Amino acid sequence: MKLLDCPGIGKRPISEFDYVGAVRIPPSDADEATWADYVFNRDNAPGVMRERWYHRPTGRWFILERNTLTDEVVGLVDPADVRYKEPNYEVPA
Amino acid sequence: MNAYASTDMSNLSLSVRDDLCGYLLTGPESASALSAAGLPLPEAQLSAEEAGEALVARTGSDEYLAFLPKGQNAPACAWCFPRADRILAVQGEGWIELMAQLCQFDFRKMQPGDWLMASVAGVNCWLYREQGGKALLIGFDAGFDHYLSDIFHTLVNELGGKESTKGGAL
Amino acid sequence: MKYRLDPQPLEWIDRRESVSFRFEGQSFSGFSGDSLSSALLASGQKLLGRSFKYHRPRGVLSMANHDVNALFQSDEATNIRGDVTPVSEGLDLRACNVNGSLANDKDSYIGLLSRFLPVGFYYKAFHKPKKYFPFWEKIIREKAGLGEISTDWSATRQPKQYGFCDVLVIGAGASGMSAALTAADAGADVVLVDENPHIGGSLDYQLANVKEAAAVRADLKTRVRSHAHIRLLEGHYAAGWYTDHYVPLVGADGIVKMRAEQVIMATGVMEQPSVFRNNDLPGVMLASAAQRLITRYAVKPGQRAVVLTGNDEGYRAALDLLEAGIEVAAVIDLEWLDKRGPWAEQVKAKNIPILEQSAIYEAKGKDALTGVVVGEFDGRGCDSGLTRKFACDLLLMSVGWAPASQMLYQSGCKLGYDKKAHQILPRALSNGQHACGRLNGAFTLEQRLADGERAAKDAVAQLNGESVNMDLTLHRDSVAHSHDWPIIRHPKGKNFLDIDEDLQLKDLINAAKEGFDNIELMKRFSTNGMGPSQGKHSNMNGIRVLAEITGKSIDETGSTTARPMFHPVPVSAMAGRRFRPERLTPMHQWHLDNGVQLMEAGQWMRPEYYLPVSEAGASDAAGAGQIDQRQQAILQEVQAVRSGLGLIDVSTLGKIEVMGPDAARLLDVVYTMTMSTIKIGMTRYALAVDDSGVIIDDGIVGRIAEDRFYVTATTSHAAAAFRTLSLKIQELGLNVRLANLTGSMAAMNLAGPASRKLLSGLTDVDLSEANFPYLGMREGTLCGYPVRLIRVGFVGELGYEIHLPAAGAMEVWETLMREGQSAGIRPFGVEAQRILRLEKGHIIVGQDTDGLTNPFEANMSWAVPLKSKPWFTGKPSLALLKARCQRKLIGFRLPQGFNGQLPKECHLIIENGEIAGRITSIAYSPSLGRTIGLAMVDLPLADGATELKVRVDGGAMVSIEPCPTPFYDADGARQTADLTEVA
Questions:
Q1: Which value does ipTM take for this structure?
Q2: Domain B13-17+84-163 belongs to what topology?
Q3: Which of C31, C334, C455, C939 is buried most, with the most CB atoms less than 10 Å from its CB?
């Protein structure tokens, strides 16, 4: 069983976590192509990625910086750093 | 099969702590409500403090789980919710070997007074090692009582321990 | 036991305890501590099995858990490995892969046909014409396989245990013990594991008669056994390497899942056979196998021996044979004697003939070895013209070693061929991994001890966070212990490279000729290394052969990676205990006491329906006998709700309290409809879609205060709903608190025309239509407990969802059941609820919707306020999808009195021979007296007029008639009005 070295709660079995992927911010007033890209495409390039992990037993979300090539957790991200305001989307007339 | 230095299992015992009532307190008023009720405020998140028969754990910046002896009033706070936790207590030297069959955590690292939230046999649980190392408390949603009590019961028997009914029948 | 030697100083057997067992119908006896093979050999039974393909006679090869031709079976078990399985009283064993008896195998003729069975024969011969393959398959399957599985088996489970340590040392030979002691002395918490029942490794079987080793052995063993920081696990093997230093240690009683900060591999080397004609005859074995037989089991492996050697160890083995009273007819050295050390001098001094630059050209014998033919060897080939013959019943092969490096490969370490050592050695290890001893090229006792110490010091330094400049070469031997080509061609073949799969040298050569000249391709085409020993005695020679054929170096040729497990692991050990969480509601005991039939809903156990308790006679009255008890119970539950009163346990609903200044903003983001406009004391339907606009959940949101809401979610989505809400709080930085009340609150739905009347006597909440309208939510007490009452309409009758802390739930439930008796109250289960909501045309997320369904397809555009709301999750997708709706959920019905074959959920709707939709829900509606359902159909068919055809089980087509929904009480009069007027 893999471990996730979470700076927030220490090394925990990865089976205690849910993973939702990279931190992404929905685009505001996006055209169709931009929105479709946001919904369906992922970069997936190896390297340091900011990812959201949910630890079920504590009910907490962590934003980890992880090198997806070496599988090393580099650091914990302050949620304030990746905060966004809900975007706007006007339905085209 | 035993990866642990063999310990005396005969004093391993399992009991139910149904003398405690749990509450979830959240929001800016939670700390003052606990203080007003004479309860301790653990400083670090994911840590716990005992006060007499009561146990308070800090599970968020202003979120707490409080376990109070039955009959004691709930802390006065608008955002205070009764919990339906089932709490098992494991006592005896062999507790680490028991837990080693149920949880991936390295319990040799768990010191008296430590609070842990982890998956035990597939169920999200909180665990607290009482001061003085008296017992390991394992709390979980009462809906899993049938499932988890059965597992603990079987394991204690297999490992050669006994059950005590202190605090309630299994 | 005529082949039993006098007591040996390190023997594993207990001569006081005799054990008897049966093999191939004959009685045998051995001593406690014997392996099956050693006990059989002690009694003179050399023939232990037949080979997989040609049914050739086979005996002992390694005595190290690689003897896959000595594979036995009992009535209970297969895959019993003779070389390592201890004897036990009363065992009744048969050799496997035998047609008839082991001694007279009727399939041994297949060996005569071997020239007609070239490599890849099965692939080529039987695939055309295709229609005959089942015929051939049956024959091949009967001939293939290693034993018969008893279908009369009983399930066994062995508990697993998690273990932790600072340093895990795998292998308790000289270097492993040295490493363990060094690390433990430095204060590390050490686990030392060895697959054998006793520690010692090759120190005990290879250096048993070496005087200088005796003191070292005694010292190491005593200290290892008594060291406070060493936990010793004998009889456990490390089965594989998994990420983050996770190494399952498998023993007779199950698996210890060990997590180690540092892992030291002291796994040693596996002796490799020489390849020559008839190298598989019983009596031909690895030198280390003979040493194991003598030292561990005091078994004499033969009477007159020839030793083939390519290293010093062969001379050691010859000396050991002499010590055991076995005549050594000759030592055949692949090279010149002057390359050898003092052991060779000792052999020479005993006047044993030594033939230099020679090899075994072929072995002779029918069912066992009777002699060998020796020829001159130039390092590549053996000259058949200049031959000498020796009569012998034992031939030892000591031509080289392959590292037990399976786990190093699995962990991604770099290994490479050392041309000086003629052995593959580790080159670079990653942090926390170490290798020492013969695995790392340290061969003398001094080197092994020093290398173990070095590895342990590296491990301890890494444990302390120090950076380590690891030098793996410090204690490596300068002398080769392997020969680079112990392989002898023979025109008549039968020179086996892989005795698991009966692969001859020519098979690999032919595979390469056919183009499979890459190590991975060759393995798969020839099956080299794919048998039960997983290449442990064939992979190295296979690499050498392929390198020779292709003219590439060993490194360029590469190696396949042996996957976990290192040895076969019983399923019972992998299964472990059964950990399958099951969740019960606070009213569970009542359900059990009242005839409930339970069903699984995720982790929850929910009432599916209740068997009628009081109307047992009614089934006769119904008379038809076609409606089974289940169906009848469900229909009665439906009718009770429609005509009187029903109560269902809905405690499994997700229940989340959402509090704080930004609570309304959060819910506006998560759900499609506007929640910030809900009035205090009212609820609203809550539909959640994902970014792509697909429906993921539904429930209700109720407003308790300006800054406080109560949210419910479907049973299966409860945890996910909490997760999503907390995620959005983090993403948007909202000032909101959540309380997950799913487990601490119970909920039940009291539904039916009589619900208001019943409740009014039990609660202080004003239930009048004016003060507590449909979709209203009120707080108050019920039977003295604080409750929230919600006017819901899921089942289409006047109804109240009652939410309260779990502690009071049972009393409230029982009170309602008791007080509701006069109104004909019945508990109802999930099945009745499904019918009730279907009559109302309400969808169930996940049943009527799938992973692609958007709200427009589910006729819920009313729940998608694209104009009035600037944002909600999935809004842009829905705005784009609105005009692109491809399919729609429609209602349909079957004719009254329909008695054909009923369509089922997921049956397909066919239009012009093409799939045009599927049924998502279907049930008999007692309220309408006919079968109704929902179907997701392609848009052109969703006009409400087109008759649809459904293909049912068996292929028949059934017509269904589209109709509007709701099917029942279309105006909703029964759930919104004062029921006294309606009824």
A1: 0.98
A2: Gyrase A; domain 2 (3.30.1360)
A3: C455
